[in-house]
């Protein structure tokens, strides 16, 4: 690049950045007092030392300018959470970057990957009505073609609709909620009663039955995932709410080998052809190997391979023999269900300690590589504190009750810890 064009380029670049930043407001602690009551805000909480926040910066400016040009009501802001601690506390920010929305007085935490598409979709979902009305078959078909899972209330206003709306309020950060009337639904849907709640997915539908399905929110959490899908760390984490096990074909991050493709198709086929038997217990999908899953099993997961995870207790299962056929895979699933295959991992005390050590290592090693001094400080500081507490404990070891408390504290932190690894992965 010649000197002149480099100069022109940098002028253009700074113009672009300036233009972008015009759509992103820097917020401080006075925000909650000065904002209008009808305003809707999308806010990024960052910390100056957070590399993943820096990566998000250009995306955030793009989101600001695109929402503006789309005529969205959503205003985009960001704030340094280490300076504006009052605001960060108000929004209960724990990890960076934290992405939240504020609509009226309700706050919504963004649970997905740090991509422009994901965040924009979240913003427009929160901006719109909690329950979107589909008033014609055309609108219904249009929505069907854009969502692989659709949660739909059918009927007039009722107590059930009130319950549906309450659940929507809690789960709108994850998925859309719709309402419609009987005559709008495709003729092929057979309904014995109204009002009804239906989840459309995988080319078919399931109807909520309060008697056999129990709590509506728990049912929606079980049904809101497609039977088979690409799973990233955020989706996997959210699948914990379903209470189901997840069968994963673990594959390479970029180029799938022939063997990976075969494993992926095998899982897809089992998900499809044995839905009746297994979908009550399992969700199915494929996932790229990487930090999150390595953190989960506390080791290196190889691709391709099969893995079943129980997100309720951080346990996982691996096939004992080779899995090359559908029969092998079904035997694996049966072995998991009847406990003939041993569970590894879990959230027992020693597992939790191991996990904390593993995560500390995984967090610190890259820091050491890039900035050994900071690394030493980060590693040395807790160690010094730990040593000091040990010293105190040893001196005053009169009761043993402390141990229970320690365990409780560990269990309280084990999930957010794992979440932190996930949050760092901000591709
Ligand atoms: C609505 O929710 C309440 C409380 O969870 C429950 O008792 C009631 O049966 C629900 N109503 C309908 C129609 O599902
Ligand atoms: C998964 O973990 C939960 C919580 O420990 C447990 O209740 C459930 O039985 C486990 N599922 C299987 C299939 O082992």
UniProtKB/TrEMBL annotation:
<keyword id="KW-0413">Isomerase</keyword>
<keyword id="KW-0256">Endoplasmic reticulum</keyword>
<comment type="function">
    <text>Probable disulfide isomerase, which participates in the folding of proteins containing disulfide bonds. May act as a dithiol oxidase. Acts as a regulator of endoplasmic reticulum-mitochondria contact sites via its ability to regulate redox signals.</text>
</comment>
<feature type="region of interest" description="Disordered">
    <location>
        <begin position="402"/>
        <end position="427"/>
    </location>
</feature>
<keyword id="KW-0812">Transmembrane</keyword>
<dbReference type="InterPro" id="IPR013766">
    <property type="entry name" value="Thioredoxin_domain"/>
</dbReference>
<keyword id="KW-0732">Signal</keyword>
<keyword id="KW-1015">Disulfide bond</keyword>
<dbReference type="InterPro" id="IPR052250">
    <property type="entry name" value="PDI_TMX3"/>
</dbReference>
<keyword id="KW-0472">Membrane</keyword>
<keyword id="KW-0676">Redox-active center</keyword>
<feature type="signal peptide">
    <location>
        <begin position="1"/>
        <end position="22"/>
    </location>
</feature>
<dbReference type="Pfam" id="PF13848">
    <property type="entry name" value="Thioredoxin_6"/>
</dbReference>
<protein>
    <recommendedName>
        <fullName>protein disulfide-isomerase</fullName>
        <ecNumber>5.3.4.1</ecNumber>
    </recommendedName>
</protein>
<feature type="compositionally biased region" description="Basic residues">
    <location>
        <begin position="417"/>
        <end position="427"/>
    </location>
</feature>
<feature type="transmembrane region" description="Helical">
    <location>
        <begin position="371"/>
        <end position="394"/>
    </location>
</feature>
<dbReference type="GO" id="GO:0003756">
    <property type="term" value="F:protein disulfide isomerase activity"/>
</dbReference>
<feature type="domain" description="Thioredoxin">
    <location>
        <begin position="1"/>
        <end position="128"/>
    </location>
</feature>
<dbReference type="GO" id="GO:0005789">
    <property type="term" value="C:endoplasmic reticulum membrane"/>
</dbReference>
<keyword id="KW-1133">Transmembrane helix</keyword>
<dbReference type="InterPro" id="IPR036249">
    <property type="entry name" value="Thioredoxin-like_sf"/>
</dbReference>
<keyword id="KW-0325">Glycoprotein</keyword>
<dbReference type="Pfam" id="PF00085">
    <property type="entry name" value="Thioredoxin"/>
</dbReference>
<dbReference type="GO" id="GO:0009986">
    <property type="term" value="C:cell surface"/>
</dbReference>
